[in-house]
Amino acid sequence: MTKEILQKVKEEQQKIQNTLNEEADILFADARYRYIDELVQQTVQRDVVTKTTWTARIDNIVLNRVLGIPIFLGVMYLLFLFSINVGGAFQDFFDISSQTIFVDGFANLLTNIGMPAWLTVLLANGIGKGINTTITFIPVIGAMFLFLAFLEDSGYMARAAFVIDRFMRLLGLPGKAFVPMIVGFGCNVPAVMSARTLENKRDRILTVMMSPFMSCGARLAIYAVFTAAFFPRGGQNVVFALYVIGILMAIFTGFILRTSVLKGEASPFVMELPPYHLPRMKTLMLHAWQRLKGFVYRAGRLIVPICVLIGVLNSLNIDGTMNTGDGDAQSILSWIGRYATVIFAPMGMQVDNWPATVGLVTGILAKEVVVGTLNTLYTQMGHFVSANSGDAFSLWAGLQEAFKSIPENLSQLSSAFSNPVLAKAPIHSVNQGVYGLMYQQFDGQIGAFAYLLFVLLYFPCISTTAVMLRELHRGWSVFSAIWMTGVAYCTAVLFYQAATFVRHPYSSVIWMMSIIAVFSLTIIGTRWFAARDNRIVSSPSLAMGKTA
Questions:
Q1: pTM beyond cutoff 0.70
Q2: Domain membership flag for residue 477
Q3: What is the pLDDT of residues 344-361, one digit of tens each?
Q4: Distance between CA atoms of 286 and 291, rounded to whole angstroms?
Q5: Which site among 20, 199, 452, 526 is 20 to 30 Å from 383 CA-CA?
């Protein structure tokens, strides 16, 4: 080989090294090994042994076309069972201790320093009862957030969206749209905001319209109170039924809109499924604590002022005089409540049960406020100034009673899990105080469940409405509020009239036929409107607002 050729080879090697930033000898060796590997792959046959991972084995069951939905419903049922029974076992402790400190203790302190009776009751059942109500939320809501954190961190929550994808596509939505609805089990506000992740404008509108039907944590607090008073056995079954009804109503709403004003095909659904793993308790507690802290803060800053306002309205008579704060029949709040309660008579609410009506009105501000309203009004209505019913106040005795409730309730958990349909452990006593008065005011379990149906389905809270107004045009927000309230009223009336049919068959038939007629006319009207203007989705006046 001549010197010229060798020089040329060195120059080419240098070019290769400069271009690939690697020694030429290494590149040549790598090329030889790749060539050898290709020859081996073409000539040698090996028995391929595929190792099945635990994630794949679990997914074969969890994502099964037949078993997927029952497993999903079973997991949701465990969520409610855990929240109501395990969380409820600690609810007496939070309730009794906060009642002793912030209500009875506050009232005793104000009395000892010579404050007027009406001011003492107003502050104790206003600020004190507001704090007491907010603290009582902690165990049930905290248990729910802890279980949701476990589902998310373990990897199952992402798979729930795939499980439900087939059903969502019947509504013209991708399975990804179910993720905001799952988020709605915690709070409807982030559920509406998370609809931004959907690429298609039509999918976003439809998802936002369906999300408020998901039972948020604030509604769960209301369910817990009513199951304690009316469904001490198998209360988790009632809560589970309410959650399922909410999902069904969301599906019904989606079906109506999809076949009328929001026609179209669902966008493709692609999501990466994380591998299963056992979450760390520290991580779960941190996630649950962050959510619980935010919830209690948002709830408390609404509940306490509302309880004070309700206390003022309940202490001020229509003639301008002040009563003792125990709830006078001539108070402004009582007067307004009696007139408004007539509207809810078809769903079983009597005129004397006006506190329940006021609770629905204040619930428009936030669903957390409903429990605070009921606590305040029923306490004053029944003259329950002290939990000890006139006994001398004792901080130590109250705290002792609170601590004793924990082992007593925990000892009954085994029966709740072994036979949840006949669970023997009520969350609270139903024969004394506010719970006993609630039981007297409502028409038994039928009236209470009709009330819960209305709470489940009616006007979303102001925060959710504000977010919907930001995410959608106000036309969709107004339509959502009217639609949800109408569906809530019709559903509650239909249930109550059907359940009490034997008492008044003729009036029940009239009410049920009227409800069916209203639903039919609404559906027909919606489709007529869509046929009249099939450009509703693309219309600037109804388009999505700010979408980040």
A1: no
A2: no
A3: 989 888 878 888 888 888
A4: 9
A5: 452
